[in-house]
Amino acid sequence: MPVAARPVRAWLLVAGAATLASGAFVVLGLPSPVLFGSLLGGMLYALTAREELDLPPLVFRTGQALVGVVIGALVRLPTLVRIAADWPSVLLVTLGTLVISLLAGRLLAVHRDVSPATGAFALIAGGASGIVALAHDLGADDRVVTVVQYLRVLLVLLAMPLVAGLLFHPPSGGGALTSAQTRWAPDLVFVVVAVTGGLLAQRVVRGPATALLGPMLVAVAISASGILGTVSVPTVLANLGYALIGVRVGLRFTRASLRSIARLLPLATALILLVIGACALLGLVLSAVTGVDRLTAYLATTPGGLFAVLATAADSGSDVTYVLAVQVIRVFAMLLLAPLLGRWLSRDRTRSPRGPASR
């Protein structure tokens, strides 16, 4: 085969594998199926091909920007108004979750294959897709971060119905999760302006994760202002962002890195369960301070699985608006603090991990 045709064939193989895997994950009902499927597609290629493949930097930055806009679109003015009265308790929950995550990350970094930055971002509770998108820029091993982050999401989703059903006994079908219909034209304008404005700002404001944070902040400004009405990111564009990030990270997996990550899984699983339990305790504190019912407080402080959390809140008759408010603010705060956290952790050079995080 001609050398020039090899990359085209390789990308077709990656795209085909990612599409098939994403479709299978949709049928299975897994969270973030396109991200999972694209990750698997890239990983299968990386594990079987002799030649390495990687996304061009501009393409990956576009994927980061799209994910940033998806996150920014979740912030609404009514949501911000809703939490105004309870801001001290929401701040306590956000800071408490950050502290719990950092402590768990430090414990994970005890493993010889994990740097402090990788441990922190692997276990930070909030915005898994966003954290995965910016992990490499912040000095963490995005392969480790991806596996542990989505293991966290999976365990949260498995624990949530069990905890809600066994401890709170909510009525089924107590509510409905609906969203306003949006129009393609305003949505496309919203995405184009947020992505373009955010990436242009990146050329002025140098720093890690600006390809995600810049578009996210522009998206927040547009969404909260209501200038375009109710806007969202079209599903096809959101999935494109997830796919680009998933493929890029998947292509970085090798047999050696997978063997190293496998050694982390028992410790990572135990720490994730501890984070879930500690965040549930924060929910009890939130309920006691604000008077919100315990099920709503538990769902509001669950460390991950935003859309599944909202669906559970609606079906159980919990306060969906309150759950959305606390969850979105937590995700937003974690992503905003991530660059500062990355700079702080980058000063810790006292250790030189021998595993993939040091590469």
Q: Can you describe this structure?
A:
This protein has 359 residues and is mostly helical. The chain is 73% helix and 0% strand. It has 15 helices and no strands. Helix 3 packs parallel to helix 10, helix 3 packs across helix 11 and helix 4 crosses helix 15. The longest helix has 36 residues.
- H and E order: HHHHHHHHHHHHHHH
What would you call the structural class?
mainly alpha
Number of beta-strand segments:
0
Helix content range of the residues, please? Answer: over 70%
Residue-averaged pLDDT:
80
Unreliably modeled segments: 173-179, 349-359
Shape: globular
Beta content comes to under 5%
Number of helices: 15
Q: Using only CA atoms, what is the Rg?
A: 20 Å
Give the N-terminus to C-terminus distance in angstroms. Answer: 32 Å
Largest sheet: none
List keywords for this structure.
single chain; 359 residues; mainly alpha
Describe how the helices and strands are arranged.
Elements: H1 5-28, H2 33-48, H3 57-72, H4 77-84, H5 87-108, H6 116-123, H7 128-134, H8 142-168, H9 184-204, H10 210-225, H11 235-250, H12 255-290, H13 294-301, H14 306-316, H15 320-346
Helix pairs in contact: 1-2, 2-11, 3-7, 3-9, 3-10, 3-11, 4-15, 5-6, 5-12, 5-15, 6-8, 7-8, 8-12, 9-10, 12-13, 13-14, 13-15, 14-15
Task: Summarize the entry for a quick read.
This protein has 15 helices and no strands. By secondary structure, the protein is an all-alpha fold.
